[in-house]
Amino acid sequence: MRLRKEERVNQFRAVKGQIQKISAEIAGQSVYDDSITNVIVNENDLSLKKLEEYQIELQTLHNEKNDRLQQVETYIDTIHRLSTTLGMESSMIVTKVHPSLNELCGISKNISDSILAKLNITVESLKEEKQKRLEKLHHLGKALTNLWNLMGTPYEDRRLFSHVTGLLPVSSDEVSDPGSLTLNIMQQAEAEVKRLDQLKASKMKELFFKKQNELENICNKSHMEIPSRPEIDNIITLINSGEIDHADLLMSMDEQIARAKEEASSRKEIMEKVERWMLARDEERWLEEYSMDENRYSVSRGAHKNLRRAERARGIVNKIPVLVASLIAKTKNWEEERKKVFLFDDVPLLAMLEEYNMSRQEREEEKQRQREKKKVQSQVVVDQDNAFGSRPGTSSRRLSNRSINGGFSNATPLNRRLSLSIHQLGNNSINSASQNISLMKDGRKIQGQKMFARPGFASHLRDETASVVSTFSGPVSP
Question: Which residues of 437-447 are buried (b: 16+ CB within 10 A; e: fewer)?
Answer without folding.
Answer: beebeeebeee
